[in-house]
Amino acid sequence: MEEPYPYLVLDARYERVREAGGIRSRAVLIAVGINEEGRRCVLGVDLANRESTSSWRAHSSLIDRTNRSAQALRFGLFGGSRVG
To answer: What pTM value is reported for the model?
Structure first.
């Protein structure tokens, strides 16, 4: 985790999960850092009801982990929105 990741992807995919006797769709939040050589590293994974700004804020542990490696951020892709 000490390695800088100049490229960062924060996104979510939806999975159906069994919960409280029923099946529902949940967002799996994923943070991926990409180093200078193009090597990808999963920085964090978390579960949320949906992908939204409030969901990402509520899962601040993912944001904290990615902030440490985003010091030299050149390009970011956040839930389909390009930054950089």
So the answer is: 0.69
pLDDT digits (tens, 9 = 90+) for 27-42: 898 888 888 899 998 8
User: Torsion angle of alpha carbons 38, 13, 44, 1, nearest 10°?
Assistant: 10
Residue recorded with tokens 């960062």? 8
Structure tokens at 17: 């999960």
- The token pair that represents 25 in the structure block: 């769709």
